[in-house]
Specification:
The chain is of the alpha/beta class. Helix content is about 35%, strand content about 25%. The protein has two domains: about 240 residues, Metallo-dependent phosphatases (Purple Acid Phosphatase, chain A, domain 2, 4-Layer Sandwich); about 150 residues. Strands 4-3-2-1-11-12 form a six-stranded mixed sheet, covered by helices on one side. The chain has a six-stranded mixed sheet with strand order 5-6-7-8-10-9, with no helix packed on it.
């Protein structure tokens, strides 16, 4: 038996902050979620899998476009011609709306409803496989949906599809131990955009998204090709991302001129040019307090960014950040007062209450609820303070 486990395709992702890129590069970025999905379905046909699992957030939002639906329908028909089934759940981004879709998918596609259900399939090698899952019916699901999954049935192999976060109260919270009690052979997870194997034998896997969508979704993205033979499950990660996001840093010094920074950045980007992937680099210039004020203004006017964003190489500079550090003799004193004030200022509930209308927007709500949000805000604030008081 063979199957593909993919999640979080996010078709129609609206890439932001790319207006300075060439028109060709902008178009490739906007198409990248589709190109990554092509690799999922191409691999399914090439490997002659029995079925494909799409574990939620196939569309970027619930207002799924006609072009995205047409795209999927065409691929699903090709899979049908190759006797490949599709098992699909909707997640928190593309949550289920009864009769919302403009078109029906072909009969090889099973879309799970809001209630947990189980389907049976017989694979080419004669295995009886059970697949259990459910689709989101609203942005947030606070209940323990795993409790409603059946325990292992009379199957040779059983799979659970679950779009959820570990202990995340907004997204069908679960624990690994809870999944293990069901007795399944494989849990096909979705939701977090990071590849992670939570457990082996049975396999409990997040494949991550198939194409990184912003500067925080680093490294190569893809999906899993899973095979089961001689009662052993083997999982092979397949690379699908068209663009790979990277976060890099260079150090500035007091003697640096603008030309020196250009050379440092050029050397950094050249170190990636030998690879096959296309890279989008988020660059931090460390020790920015060493630079003179004219150079800082030039960088903040995006002169460096604009210079490097015009290239046609496989390495593109996406954003440039300046990191200002305090003098070492002041760090210990500053840290004491910073810690005291940070504890009283950076409170998540207070931030949410600043503008309830904005917090009502899902994209902002998801961003604020990200575990790294507060740390990111603290870093930006501290950097701004360091810049303001350079030399004090």
């Amino acid at each position: 038996m063979k199957f593909i486990h993919a999640a979080d395709l996010h078709l129609d992702t609206p890439f932001v902050s790319i207006s300075d890129f060439s028109e060709e590069l902008q178009n490739k970025l906007k198409k990248s979620t589709y190109t990554a999905a092509d690799r999922v379905f191409d691999t399914a046909i090439k490997e002659k899998v029995d079925f494909v699992i799409l574990a939620g957030d196939t569309f970027d939002n619930t207002e799924r476009t006609l072009s995205a639906q047409m795209y999927l329908k065409n691929w699903f028909e090709k899979l049908n011609q190759n006797n490949i089934q599709v098992y699909m759940v909707y997640g928190n981004h593309d949550y289920y709306r009864n009769n919302f879709s403009v078109m029906d998918f072909p009969n090889n596609v099973t879309v799970f409803s809001k209630e947990v259900s189980t389907v049976r399939i017989q694979t080419r090698d004669g295995l009886n496989v059970g697949i259990s899952g459910f689709s989101y019916y609203q942005n947030h699901i606070n209940t323990d949906m795993v409790a409603t999954y059946p325990t292992r049935g009379d199957f040779d192999y059983q799979i659970g599809i679950l779009h959820a976060g570990i202990g995340d109260g907004n997204y069908a919270p679960f624990t690994v131990n809870e999944l293990l009690t069901k007795g399944y052979d494989y849990w096909a997870l979705g939701h977090i955009h990071k590849r992670e194997i939570l457990h082996g034998n049975p396999m409990i896997i997040y494949p991550g998204d198939t194409q990184g969508r912003n500067q925080n979704e680093l490294e190569t993205k893809g999906f899993y090709l899973v095979s089961y033979e001689n009662k052993i499950t083997n999982c092979k990660f397949i690379h699908s991302s068209v663009f790979v996001w990277k976060s890099e840093m260079i150090d500035a010094s007091k003697d640096d001129r603008l030309e020196d920074l250009f050379n440092k950045i050029t050397n950094l980007m050249d170190s990636f040019a030998k690879y096959h992937d296309r890279y989008l680099i988020t660059l931090t210039i460390n020790n920015a307090q060493s630079l003179n004020k004219d150079m800082i203004k030039s960088i903040e006017r995006n002169e460096i960014l604009n210079h490097f964003s015009k290239g046609n190489t496989n390495v593109v500079l996406y954003k440039v950040y300046l990191k200002f550090n305090r003098e070492s003799k002041l760090v210990e004193i500053d840290q004491k007062y910073w810690d005291e004030s940070a504890n009283s200022v950076f409170k998540l509930d207070d931030i949410k209450d600043m503008d309830t209308r904005l917090f009502g927007e899902q994209v902002i709500r998801d961003h604020i609820n990200d575990p790294d949000f507060l740390n990111h805000i603290k870093e930006i604030t501290q950097n701004t303070i360091n810049k303001k008081y350079i030399g004090d």
